[in-house]
Write a structure and sequence with these properties.
By secondary structure, the chain is mainly alpha-helical. The chain has 5 helices and 4 strands, in the order H-H-E-E-E-E-H-H-H. A hairpin with a 2-residue loop joins strand 1 and strand 2. Helix 3 runs antiparallel to helix 4 and helix 4 packs across helix 5. The chain is flat.
């Protein structure tokens, strides 16, 4: 049956979901969650995160777990190969001539490094100035390109060697840039952290300034004098008439609130 459905799935505009989606039923999800809770309890580490993979699960629950890590540390996605240990391969491993000797793993021994007086000599040559090596490679690219143009003008049959030299220089330049990426990532992370730190410090300073302004306003309100009720304001009032007494009290309260707000506006102005 699956073989009969395969041509239809390949001919459709969008591919069908994997067949194991049918295993994600509410019953199976409840069972796998129960198994994870049991496994977390047996571990006794007290952590809140259950283990990703549980050993010895039933066969019908296998698809509900994340896939296991590849044994050789390699996997393939969309035709590209990836490794768990993301290590930059050396130029020698790729069959490319190594020109820039910047990486510690690419230190050359018994290389003609030159003497100060005669320009000759042998020894160990190593340094870690990526910017210097990149400048040298770029200048070599320009020089070889000019030589290629001259070769094409005079003897095009000999241009293949110069094209190969340009290819080697370009690959070495790209490799030197890749070696510099960890340092670039650290610098970018440090710059991002500094940006967030400066922003938090600015927000903290603004909050403290507002707190100080609020304290000043509160101190100013504390110094305000509450107006006393005039002696004759309640004369002639009938105490049995509750509505009339409450109206007078409300009027006095509104006047007092108006004075307080006016004083507050004067302090904040």
């Amino acid at each position: 049956m699956a073989d009969q459905e395969e041509p239809h799935s390949l001919a459709s505009t969008f591919p069908n979901p994997p067949p194991f989606w049918k295993d994600f039923t509410p019953e199976n999800i409840a069972r796998i969650e129960e198994l994870r809770s049991r496994a977390q309890g047996h571990d006794g580490d007290g952590g809140e995160t259950p283990p990703a993979r549980i050993p010895g699960v039933p066969e019908d629950l296998t698809n509900l777990q994340p896939p296991a890590e590849p044994k050789d540390g390699r996997w393939r996605v969309f035709g590209d190969h990836y490794m768990l240990d993301d290590k930059l391969p050396t130029l020698e491993e790729q069959g490319i001539t190594n020109l820039a000797l910047t990486h510690p793993a690419r230190t050359a021994t018994n290389v003609d490094v030159g003497d100060n007086s005669t320009g000759t000599g042998t020894g160990t040559y190593t340094h870690h100035d990526h910017a210097l090596e990149l400048k040298r490679l770029v200048k070599s690219l320009l020089l070889n390109f000019l030589e290629l143009v001259g070769t094409l003008a005079s003897n095009p049959a000999h241009a293949a060697d110069k094209v190969e030299d340009l290819r080697t220089l370009l690959i070495n330049t790209h490799h030197a840039l890749n070696e510099y990426r960890p340092h670039q990532a650290r610098e970018s992370a440090a710059e991002m952290m500094q940006y967030h730190l400066d922003r938090i410090r600015g927000e903290t300073a603004a909050v403290r300034a507002q707190v100080e302004n609020t304290r000043k306003v509160l101190r100013g309100l504390a110094d305000l004098s509450v107006p006393e009720v005039p002696p004759g304001v309640f004369e002639g009032l009938v105490l049995e008439d509750g509505d009339r007494t409450e109206e007078e009290w409300n009027r006095a309260a509104r006047e007092r609130d108006a004075e307080v707000w006016a004083a507050t506006d004067a302090l904040l102005a």
